[in-house]
Fold these 4 entries.
Entry 1:
Amino acid sequence: MSKSLIIAEKPSVATDLSRVLAKAPGVGKFEKKKEFFESDSAIISSAVGHLVELKMPTRPDGKNLGWGFQNLPILPDRFELQPIEKSQDRLKLLLKLMRRKDVTEVINACDAGREGELIFRYILMIGAVEKPTRRLWMQSMTNDAILSAWGQLREEPQMRSLADAALCRSESDWLVGLNGTRALTAFNSRHGGFNLTPAGRVQTPTLSILSERERIIRNFVSRDFYEVHGTFQVAAGEYSGRWFREDFRKSEDDDQLRAERIWSLQEAEAIQARCQGKPGQIEEKKKPSKQSCPALYDLTTLQREAGSRYGFSAQRTLQLAQSLYERHKVLTYPRTDSRYLPSDYIGTVRGTLKGFASASGSKNFSEDYSHFAGELLSQDYLKPIKRVFNTAKVSDHFAIIPTGKLPAAAIDEPAMKIYDMVMRRFLAVFYPPAEFENTTRLTRIGQDAFKTDGKILVVPGWLEVYGRKPGVAGGGNELAAAQPGEEAETLELELLSKQTQPPARYTEPTLLSAMETAGKRVDDEELRDAMSERGLGTPATRAATIEGLIRQKYIAREARDLHVTNKGLALIDTIDALQIDILASPEMTGEWEMKLKQMERGQVSRQAFMQEIRELTETIVTHAKKQTDELKKRVFPDLEVACPVCGNGPIKQTDSTYECYSPECKFRIKKYVANHEITLAEAKQLLETKFAGPFDDFKSRFGKDFSAGLELDEKFKVGFVFESDGREDELDNLKEEQILTRVTAEGYQNEPVYETERAYLAPRLGLQGDEKGIRVSKQILKRDIPSDQAVKLFRDGKTDLLPGFVSKRGRKFSAYLLLDRSTGKVSFEFAAPKKKSAKKRAAKKS
């Protein structure tokens, strides 16, 4: 009897299929064998993710191809496959089952998307299997969804376009990634050694987005500005307003300009003086507005919002959503890029809501869900609206929604947070819009105007699902009502001193948004949705791209921020120097991703796309070779000093190193160290005296400034020397004329405090048993510490309130410095916040 071989992507899915398909007509009960299930008409087994990969290039003799430019570009006419070593046994099993004489067709039950198609196709190709194939396309893992998909198996011609796109994705990543990585590695290794420099079709443009923002932040120069805030009173109570320039026009040349910013202290003081104590004339404009619920979730939107709300990484959100789909079966397929449902799906949704409305008693099923599901049905809110039901905007998969299966008690808290997000969006999307009353109030005092914005939630609509009640809505004050023609009494005018701030670093949520729109800052949801076809990667791969950049140390997480490391910036600099910017172009890569999606729909041919990728690959290698050859020809002046290793001289200077001319000598130091370029004079000093500096322009891998000297150690390697490293010499060389003062503190009498070039020292104060005493730097967080405050710190253990410290995020703050004499550590004590008047607290309470 002939049998169908069904191949799932993971063993757990194979187990579920064996349980559910046993109920399908003509399939029969499955018997568990060692690594597969078998019935009278079918065999079910699985891969364990990818089992096959594209083979690395080799020489005719089978040995690995070298990494030099002479072997580039690598453009095979035919791509060879090889088994992934760790899963070879599973591949052998599947190939054995596929070759059984009683197996007459092979059914692909891998995840329903591009990568699932690739896993299956590579297994067929490496095994040279030519038996008929069909596709089991599942939108969710519930019993009904599996049986429905079994009854509608897709034929091979229906899957050809998706298979082409899957193969093109794999082959284009291989060509661009392998050739780009090898070209950059050859360039960075041109002076010897092996400096692996990974690059990729999606990874490098993503790094380019981050690097552009990082450079803006590092080069940002803060500017002082001022604001004038007023507190006003009418018969109904107090309200606040902010002075603004009514004739302000936004400038394209200076994006730091704002209507409320005053760039001169004198002007701000003049505004404060001429308005102080004078009555204000009130003008108001009220405008009703409506806000519809955002669309249903696709994976990127879910990752973005879960990152903002709960701090989940994109990878973590994907793992949780996948477990809710695959293991718990309470969500539909999560790796989707659609936020819509099919137009004929309203009946299914109605049935799901009926089930939720009648559900009760489940530990993980909130009474809220039942209540709102019941209200949707009783109020007849469920309508076939285009912003939810639109087949034209459904790709391989529709939006992520609940399946209707109630969540089990075994689902943990992080997963339930994702489930709650999806459930509430599913319920809220059918509710009416929320209604607001927006009020703009101008308080005029002569030629000046103070602006107050208020936003009141009048009808909660869909926001009711999120617990919102009528009343204040964020973004403004709860305005005390003013009567027509009423004057406002000016209670207080406060002049605030501020500084402009650089744009925030990307977090995973904001980076996902940028990847979705190929680097363009798009806040409008509809426009972002329209541009999503031109995104970097797919919803299923973006998290892995970010993790890959972190793993390769191109970027690093610090709290929620993503910092580009010096290594990451150096890669983008190298790409720019080699004139292969196309490798880092988010727009270009976004266009390719769009073409892959068009290929899935049969609108772009596989041959045309791969020809474009091959041309790109040749361009990258050609430009890299040309620029490398030109750099090699460039002549730099020699360093007239003897080699510290072999004694020969002079020392050769290249574009990136200082190195010995002697071929037998391996001495070499880098010209660039932590963002600092070692000049010819500095290199001479370093090689002759074994020390140079200190220098103030070093940057850590997180982009933080630091100061240090450079030393050549006994192994002829360059290392940092920080202030504390030379402390014994500093103490030994103290002179009488350096005594700043003598202090008497608890347990100490008339102890000297010295002032050196970089620090204040009290060699005999505190630190019992430690002869080094206490040392306090003359600059702390970019704030110079004056000598009188240093004296107070050593004598009293506390300074006055000092303004002008700069935090790690670049924000200025004021604080007292505290000294712990037992440890010698200096810490901060922050000033208590300024207390508001009772009336002001009452006005701002909400």
Note: The radius of gyration is 34 Å.
Entry 2:
Amino acid sequence: MPPSPDQKPLDLSLVTICFNNADIIGRMLDSVEGLVGEIVAVDSGSTDGTIDILRERGASIVHQPWLGYVGQKKRAVKLARKTWILQLDTDEIVQPDLARSIRRLLESKTDGLAAARLRRVVWYRGEPLRHAWQPEWRTRLVRTRTLEVGTAVWGGREPHDQLHVSKNAGRVVDLDGVLRHDSFETFDNHLGVQLRLARRAAQSMEEDGKPASIARLVVSPLTAFGKQIIGKKAYRDGRAGWLAAGTAAAGALMKHMMRLERAILADEKAGETVETSPAEPMSYTSGTGRPGPSVPAAASEPPVSPTSYSTQEVFVTSDQSDVPQDAETTEETAQPEAAAETGDEQPKKKKKRRRRRKKKSESKAAEVESSDESGDADIDIDDADDDRSGREKLKAVMPVSDEARKHVFNTETTFAELGLNDKLLKALDDHGWTHPTKIQAQLVPIAVTGKDVLGQAKTGSGKTAAFGLPVLHQAEKGVPFQALILAPTRELAIQIRDDLEELAKHTKLKVVPVYGGQKIHTQAKKLEKGPEIIVGTPGRVMDMNNRGLLPLDKIRFAVLDEVDRMFDIGFRDDIKRILGMTPKKKQTIFVSATLSEEIERLARQHMTDPERIEAAGGSLTVEMVKQHHISVQPWDKRRMLHHLLTHEEPDLTIVFCRMKRTVDMLAKYLDRKEIKTIALHGDLTQGQRNQAMRDFRHGELNVLLASDLAARGLDVDGISHVVNYDLPDDPDLYVHRIGRTARAGREGIAWSLVTPEQGNLLTQIENLINAEIPLKDYPEFDARVEPPENWKPEPQPGFQPVVVEGVEAKGSRYEQRQAPVTEKLSKEELEQKFPGGVVPKKPPKRSMGGRVRTGRGKR
């Protein structure tokens, strides 16, 4: 329905999910033209032109591996930025009468209104059917705030298509007009749709850990058929109704046939690759822990998306298991063999306890892809630590404002002009990227020639792709250990691995991360297969090299991300040692957002005539970040943070603290204030750190309390606010902290809580970034002039000297001794203090310094 000249688009976001829907999505988009102000689509790997249609309409696109219907729709609505959301499937058309009703509703007074239901009618060959596969009324128009606070959720017998709104959220009204479901053009057409949906439903069952069942193969189609014919009276539509019921039954049948087929393939594969012991037969458990076949993705079944993951795995409890085990389990698994030799039976209690521990570790990998012989990714159960499960692999292609184009992107060139090969260009095109960022446009053409490069660019400007694309362009398939990429933190190493895998998906190059916190055996198995690219942290890279698992003498490309952090005091010796073991003839690429003269001097010692590229230009911080500082007394900092989180209502927020104890303290405080948070710092286990990042990425909790562990390189979609609860002692860290928001041309806000004693530190930060950080005042905040009685100053980082009262302080024995003062002593005191009258005028030339020889160590 084309809009009239005096009608403007509403404050309304259209959200949809799609996968190869080019034949029908255009009609849906035409029906809402002029009605919606924003289009958001989550795509699961379309290759038929669906993406091109969406781009022509100016849609915001997110490429997301299939997470199930509910997961995809949750992901879609989180990206909406308008006040209202209209959720439609690609085969649904808003009729003109319904469009007019939506416009009248949203242009009227909507206070107290939470959602609206739309009347959905199924059509066959241009005629409406009197029945429907799903309930006739759908809650599809909902206020965004209602979804954000959780008062509107998907649920019911068909949760992917029923949005239930809590009574406490407000009124829900029914709109006049028709929402036309129009994909059932012919039986052949609709059967194809049902089979495609069956494939997705089978994958969702795998993710939920539901085992394949012959009973379901029989009962489910009959239930689906009876639901249409009897429950919804499809027989009243004559032959069309029977056809509709038949397609529903066929879809249900195909879904469970796929599940059984994958179970058979899993059994055959397990029988080929795992030897069983006669004393202990091989058994399987499903993801739920109940007996039954466990099913990986079928090798013959094409995935829904190039980056989708199957969530099943084969778990073997025999002694010849391929599952990596640590020292504890290795010792225990050796005992049954010893028992067999001596004739003694292994105690059952200990055996069960070992199995429980194994099942516990298996449950952590419920969302990890099972590796197959033909697959490119060799993933085992410990890859749950890699934060892979459910993480969106491709970044959102959001409409870029003119301001962002000016500061971030180089619109005068394209990736095709940078000298990259066709496979990389295809991956970039799949993501929807056409124009490179400024650092990419400058660094990539030089790096692809093999020249050493030292690059500096603002945070969020695409440095990972800037160094990753040249490495992938020059790397050769089948040559192991030819590229080494070092990162300062585990989380950043995992993120770089994810980004490079996406860019390399058409090149078949393998990227393996090595970092602390994950089992050595897990990473050793991957390194044994000779991956081309290694991404790691310095400590684990040296460990693997010492074990003989990671040779460094064949490295052709050495990359240091966050090079200023890599060459500081903590990492300097490790980096020198690692680079010293690599060949002198290699290409080095060092990048960072901040680069001091000292760091540049150290970096150049490991490079050969490097090209210096600086794409920062003026301020080191991104122009799209709105920065403010808030003056507050130390005793009011917690209250001010609570005031910001409750009054400003930020969407996705990171709160940075200097110390780990402050992170934990704030987490407890905000929990008492009923603000749910996630804590992230170095004292957490790797599993806890990955879970924190996973929850934050998926938006399950909106506030992340973090030490500076999260300040380096992490890219999480949708971070709207960064709060510096403590100003960093190093002004460079401020740049990296606020760079977590306003990434790739998006906008963001950064607040800093500044106490009166930190005025000089704020000035140093302003001098570094070459910009003023204005004051933001909150008159409504009840600031306290005097500290409360129970307030204690916050502990300062570093070593705190211990003061012992009541004991005379003595100087250090290593301090230079001074000659005694004798002018004020009487003659009697001199006689008593210095018998013989000899008064020393200076300390002895040599002093034992309190060290004496002992007989320790002598035999």
Note: Residues 154 and 163 are 4 Å apart (CA to CA).
Entry 3:
Amino acid sequence: MDDVALVGGKAASLGELLRALTGAGVRVPSGFAVTARAYDAVLDQGQLRAQLGELMRGLDAGDTAAVVHRGAAARAAIMSAGLPASIDQELRAAYRDLEARLGAGVDVAVRSSATAEDSPEASFAGQQASLLNIRGEQAVARACLECFASLFTDRAITYRILHGFDHFAVRGAVVVQQMVRADLGSAGVIFTLDPESGNDRVVLISGAWGLGEAVVAGRVDPDEFLVFKPGIDRAPRPILRRRIGDKQTRIVYARTGAHTTRTVPVAVADRQRLCLDDADALQLARWAVAIEEHYSARAGRRTPMDIEWARDGRSGQLYIVQARPETVHARRDMTTIERCALVDAPEPLVSGLAIGQGVGEGPVRVIEDLEELPSFPEGAVLVTDMTEPDWVPVMRKAAAVVTNRGGRTCHAAIVSRELGIPCVVGTGQGTAVLGDGERVTVSCCEGTIGTVLPGHVDVRRERVQLDEVPALRTGVMLILADPDRALTHAALPVQGVGLARQEFIVANHVSLHPLAALHPEQLDAPTRAAVDALCRGYANPEEYFVDRLTSGVATIAAAFYPRPVIVRLGDFKSNEYARLLGGAAFEPAEENPMIGLRGASRYVHPQFREAFALECRALRRAREEIGLDNIRLMVPFCRTADEGRAVVAALAEHGLARGDGLEIWVMCELPSNVAAIDEFAEIFDGFSIGSNDLTQLVLGVDRGSALLAHLFSERDTAVRRTIEAAIRGAHAHGRPIGLCGQGPSDDPEFARFLVALGIDTISLNPDAVLPGIQIIADAEAARASAGDAAADQEGR
């Protein structure tokens, strides 16, 4: 890396990997670098440097037509000048040396490595040429010249202007690197953090069949693996999530003609399977972490990495073909949280993967042909099949970007993050559904799913300085149900997750009734067909259920690791379970499901015991196979101490024994939990007050009844006294107790009541955390002031 000024960022980084990390098993293809001195020699021929300077003089990045015209002229001038004879001879000799080591006619990638490229402060990714499957010394020499000329692509010119780089301060260098036969295998990109939220608890691997350009350029919807980073060296299988992408096409070697590669369709069977197995994904994740640790040690600070990988289809070997520091989050102010939320959002027109966390609004402009780019208006929403690297001058004018294809690591995603504009990729049908001139709002503030909504949608925004958040005695935790938002919400100043609602994960990420997964043979034909379609790609519905539930719970736990995450066991009521796919065949019809077969009673009921065992398999897999030992369990709606003992025994039977690093809590939401709190304290490690159910059952009010809504109040004397008895009883028996619900953030007086009683934690919904912290801080200040006044009175 000390040679960046000589060989550019890409070549220097590959040399660094070979020098420092091959001992750690990181495999890098062989090759050589063409230095920036060769580039200088090309530009020093005749009047070429002066000619280029004149072309670049006074160029405005916003004048797209001028950038296109002058860039083309600059590239043509360099190609016309050619390589000086001495450089040409040296290049050919270097390629012959490579042939001597690797075989005659070795195929190579010839890739630009500009001297400012791949630095921690700026990303020049995709701006210059990469030419693949180049063979023979004459072809290599010409490809190197094309790389030099590509320093004047439209995107490169625009980027230098916008970032204040002198056009001649950035010098060309080239990597000539042995090709990995990924055309017969697979390739893709790795980030050592979540590229949207910046959460560094994960490694994101994306990939597709064929050469990696298809993933990088956004030509396909790639497969994704999300790996739990802290579990890589200590857990058997720390994979949080696998997503099968469409992988519509693959780039392979061309057999004939002028082109060195061609794009071909992918067979349906290959589209429906992952391009990597778990072992390969974990090997890549280990290498990625080793690379990040090395670069971080060099820099003296955490340095997330953006890495390209390839798998040789002949040998099966994995390779790292590029590594560079990630730039977007490296420049981010980590002491600030910026959040946005839609207000009264309508149904989306299309959806896809969210890139960034912002919202953009404007008229749609569909671009289907490159010739349409110069007419793109400022402030429009760019809608296209996929973007190309040279589209940056247009993208910077856009209010937002929407593409049919691409994944979270494609060029459209990388560029949009860097430009700070919202982008939704992989919509599949954006160009077909969205019409020119139609005003839309593009939202990337709802987790990993991005949406395009009709018309104007109001947005609520907030910006918080974390170093200004008051320190509290009362712990503030989150209520969460959506794994897709967990990586983003983990940035909030909370002590962990006080309530992860497992039934919401089942409803939204699994959708299948557990008994339908275990007994699909009992379903009618149409339902069985729907189950088979839902579980396509899995060995059976049972494995689908366990894997999807594991993934949802584990993603939340990983996002907050090592902070505790309390996962409430499934608390569906029978009517809600019946709505799941296949559920109607297994659920009873109850007159009053609110106080029917739910919570603890269901786990030990003979008819539903095996469904509970399926839940337990998922939770055990998250803790043991992925390594998420921060997961705690919580039992809801536990009516009696005997029932509590039976559930704890059932958990132990399924490998989730209390103790040995696992805490088991109980919801305190029935009057019986409070009346017998001494017995419950012997069985469980902690309590969490469910104020909605507790209020309902203390007052005998159906919380869903509009007719009785005026009676439903946590301020009622009976409810307050019950909560007070719960807090005092838990503390008397040495158990922590918290409360989950909106009440403390909506009602400052209720917050003061809880704080005065010394409640240990209050769990809030994400949008209530920041205002809730201030309310709790005020309540703690009032409590301290009251305590001081009492002490003064006693002294007098």
Note: DSSP finds 29 helices and 29 strands in the chain.
Entry 4:
Amino acid sequence: MNKNCNLVIAAAVMLAPPSLCAQHILHYNTPAIAGEKSVARKAEKKFIANALPMGNGRLGAMFSGGIDRELIVVNEITQWANASRGLDPVAQSGSKPGAGKDLEKVRKVYREGKYGTQKGGMEWMANEHLCNTKTRLGNYSTFTEVRIDTGHNPKKVSNYRRELDLKSALGKVSYSIGKANYTREYFISHPHDAMVMHYTAENAKLELEIATTTRHKTRTLKAEGNRLTLLAEVKLANDMAGFSQLIQVVAEGGKLTATVDGTLEVSGASSVTIYLTGYTDYLPVFPTFKGRDYKADTAATMNKLVAVGYAAAKQAHLADYQAQAQRMTLDIDCKPSGLPTDQLLKQGGSVELDLLYFNYARYLQLGCSRTAPVPSNLQGLWNPHSKPAWNSDYHFDINLAMNYWMVDPANLPDSFSPYVEYLKVIAESGKYVASENYGVDKGWAAALNSNIYGVAGPYNTGRRVQQAGHWLSQNLYDHYAFNQDPQYLKEIYPVIKGAAEFFVGFLAPWKDGTLVVYPTWSPENTYLSKQHGKLNKQCYGASWDQQLVLNLFTDCIEASRKLKVDAGFRKTLEEMIPRLCPQKIGQHGQVQEWPEDWDEPKDTHRHISHLIALHPGRDISPLTTRELSAAALVTMKHRGDESTGWSTGWKTCFWARLHNGDKAHWFYRFLNVKRAYANLFDFHPPFQIDGNFGGPAGVCEMLLQSHLRSIDNTAGTIGEAAFAAYQSDPANPKNFIPVVPPAELADAPYILHLLPALPSAWPDGKVRGLRARGGFEVDIEWRGGKLVAATVRATRDGSFRIYANHQLSKLVTLKMGEVHQPKL
């Protein structure tokens, strides 16, 4: 190649658009940890904050990039310890047998206003009679650890680089020692369900020792030929759960030795490929949750992978991953710094970091939730701890739902299936909770905490969410809103209907005659604390409950119309909706958190569940319910700016739905600068992955919103056209009564709102492949903060209206595959 050609290539690289630069690569000049013989115990905290994660939904790993010793923590998403499984259905569900007989006794105390934790008070009664399941929850735990010793001296290394490429899902480590160049490449294949590690040397030979351990009970650990076999057990409360791992090594041009102490030694090789896979005995079948032939599956997966080989496995991995990842791209004009990611963080906020964090979120979503037996947990998939914070379990009062907010708008719909399958298990388990804990003979209920073994009963004390079926079901129907798949709707309808059936049986009249959920609480917050103490949380008719019940009933009514079933049940829901306790604007102009005006303007609590109708719900909007939206704005100002990771992510979404792009962006940047470890994992603190997903969900909301629907397609303004779920009570204008959805709502087109909350920090950019409800994909381009182009593609036959620049378009109807480009 001549000199001129080199100049042309260099110029092309320099002129490449920003999306081809560092916004897709996390990279570092140092290992995640160094000098440690193992990650266990003292190195865990540093490892989780610095090591780089990989995953295929079920199998995960994090690598340290150590020079003399590579340490890899392996996770399997069904590796759960210290829990109960295989009990009789009532016990396995976590139900409290016969507690329902005391429900009215408990409710009487609420109606009498006996607040507080004293004996006979609301807190004490809920705990004593309805909660405190005996079924062990347990905790998510590590799978194995792999150690690869290289014999290299860190002091002699130059040009060190550790990176994670979000476009290819490839992890890499490279460095030089003198004239020798060493590289490592890692990926976890979804098609082949295994991890692949590829080591190469230039001007040198590889000398490696490969070992593996587990913190659980080892039954077998042996090295034979080119394989390391590990068979082990995890201790449960009433059982032992088996699991296995296989490592197979292929060394090119060298010698491979299996040692008696269970290691594999490689000498004189030019390249080494290490394959790893493993499974547990878990099956998502209530109430046994066991039965997988994990040893046979491990062997079969390994044999298929080795037969394919490294090159073909990598090609399959790239094709599979990129087919998912490239469905959407976001480009915002910026000048890449070239800084390592940890230094980029120290520089403070930047558009470069905004983009990197967003792309990382999509990468993590694919890594921890694709066709797995269970959904992503509090840490997604990645965990170096034997017992992580909050058990790394499933929290039903925001965290699990938040993990899946981004899936549809960011065009990763295939990652939703584990959530669907898990909800089927929880619904089955929750039938016993409904009947035993609350005496409701139809439907299902679930409380705050759960695990992979389907626990649905209320834990700990009365100061917990007791009924979360409405919250969990919200994601299910919203996924249908995006995909418009009638087969999917038919699949999930029994779960949604079951959640609605429970609340039909559980809702009860309050003293004013309206129907309220009680006992309940407003997640994690307290009221009248000066009078009754900081643990005064049990309440009645909490606003979030009432908002979600309306959302659930509306979804169930619409689904039944779509499927042409359950007309009688539909009528029951329609008759109950107007009787639900209204939403109220309080004395400070705020959305009341409770039916009573107890809100405190100085309350900066991180949980703002009483705005759930603003997001992820669709029933409070500046375009349809202006008074409630103005009250939501007051609430947001009261709650302030300091937040934990997940709360910051939620506030990003709230402000986007309030059409304040700069405030939404402020929270998003706070999240990616002040709530990020060096590896960009969200810290609560410590690490919780929900913030990694909640903030980027807010980015999608800044660029496109599609939750409103046009029920009058002849109307020229959005206020006249869009359905409003609440209307002011003529007798009390500060009360807003739930509205029965009209029949035409079931087929009403969605309104695609373009650039509803574009921040001034992103004046020029474009996005391709955002998903909108109704079955559409949307491309948007803007310059100088103004919309300049848009394209809507139909993934199914359907209609929509566009709202942009404060103008509402006429109805647009497309056949599947057709494209519409509006005149702007």
Note: The longest helix spans residues 417-438.
